[in-house]
Amino acid sequence: MKQSEVKELSVAELQEELGKSRKAYSDLKMAHAVSPLENPIQLRTVRRDVARLATELTKREQQ
């Protein structure tokens, strides 16, 4: 998810997407631990998506 897409989401949508992304990251890490992923770069992209969402959520809560 790109930063421009993240900025357009509401706070409730951000929280929902953050939960989904964290779950996806957890699932990918578990799958990678059991057997190597075909594309391990997925871990990095999902982790960065989680960071983008969390950063935007924190920024909005402070305003």
Strand residue content? under 5%
In the predicted model, the low-confidence regions spanning at least 5 consecutive residues are none
- What class would the helix/strand composition place it in? mainly alpha
What form results from the Cα inertia axes?
A: elongated
Largest sheet: none
**Count of DSSP helices?**
3
What is the total number of structural domains?
1
In sequence order, what are the helices and strands, one letter per element?
Answer: HHH
Q: How many E-type strands? A: 0
Intertermini distance: 23 Å
- Rg on CA atoms, Å: 13 Å
Mean pLDDT: 95
Helix content: over 70%
Task: Explain what you see.
The chain is mainly alpha-helical. The protein has one domain (3-57). The protein has helices at 3-8, 11-34, 41-62. α2 (11-34) packs antiparallel against α3 (41-62). The longest helix has 24 residues, at 11-34. The radius of gyration is 13 Å and the shape is elongated. The two termini are 23 Å apart. The model has no long low-confidence stretch (mean pLDDT 95). Belongs to the universal ribosomal protein uL29 family. Pfam families: Ribosomal_L29. It comes from Christiangramia forsetii (strain DSM 17595 / CGMCC 1.15422 / KT0803) (Gramella forsetii).
Which helices and strands, and how do they pair?
Layout lengths: L2 H6 L2 H24 L6 H22 L1
Helix pairs in contact: 2-3
Family: Belongs to the universal ribosomal protein uL29 family.
Protein name: Large ribosomal subunit protein uL29
Keywords: Ribonucleoprotein, Ribosomal protein
